[in-house]
Amino acid sequence: MSMRFHGSFLRRWLTTASALAAWFGALTAGSQWSLAGEVSQPPGSLLANPPAVPRRDKPPRKVLVGTEVAGWDLVLEYSLEKRLQRMDELAEAMSAQARVNYPGKRLDLVVLTEYFLSRPGDTAAQRAVRLDEVKPRMAACAKKYGCYMVVPMVLEEEDPPLRYSNAAVLVDRDGKVAGIYRKVHPVPDLKDVLLEDGLTPGGNFPVFDCDFGRLGIEICYDLNYAEGWAALAKQGAEIVALPSETQETIRPSGYAQQHRYYVVSATPRGHSAVLSPLGVIQAEAGQAGVLVHEIDLSFEIVGYQKDEGKRLTLKFGDRIGFNYYTGEDSGICWSNDPTTPIGEMLGSLGIPDMDEDTSHARVAQDRVRGGPPSIP
Question: In the prediction, which pLDDT does 250 show?
Fold first, then answer.
């Protein structure tokens, strides 16, 4: 990445107040999508088409996600070969951390930072790589550690016309390319002529079926545009990988909370994070480090608990996992018992799902009011 583009990027990033205001307005006004992958009905109605098996009634679905803080030297200076070596080193470090912290469990997903595989240069053409140049090394790495990998790169597209994309390639456990996301919102230069020194923007927001769940991808400046995050939720994304040059957490936390999916960021500086569907940082990697963290996709969100969830652990012990956030008056919980879904555990104590509870409350409010409120 050129220093010229880096300076342009920072100036653009610091002058996005209007975009942020628009995003915040859309967030606070409510989204068309309430639960990940579930269509929100008009005010005053319950979900007309709930999923065949609600998330809370599914067995535990543990996923080991890995992320990293790559360092600015990689982004600005490393040759392609050094980047490939660094990819292997980071995957090995994550695999080693998984063996120590989660013995007997395999690493499921590795997320690398934006522009991870590219060449030093001042233009997109100079930085670009062809997929066939790097696919054998990516395949070997994914197969060695038995995981999916999100590998961002400046991609020279194979089909004409000649063009370049800020892309994230998803490689599966067998080393096969499972899909590619092309950044929909590259950063314009100060004259609004070039996008990231010559990149072509992508045109859609795919969601990929992995053996652990449904994965979406957003890249850095995509944070400024809420529609992509909503599109992933509409398609049932359960995890969103966020390769990025920014270490920010407020906006990705907002999207995670709004759409009820996990967000896993990977950055070159500061910290990378795993953000829960409550919008809370569950775990983070520090400077030039790696992180492996276990999440469960069969979670349930609960509202205010007077005892902060103590009755859950008293009844179920280690069979239940629970993070309660006093400052948020809410928590996220999951089952550690393959024979008992989290919904059954909470139901035995009469604890409702917070989102369903809110939907039921809306029905009662609209009934007493005589209809939904007027929204300009």
Answer: 96
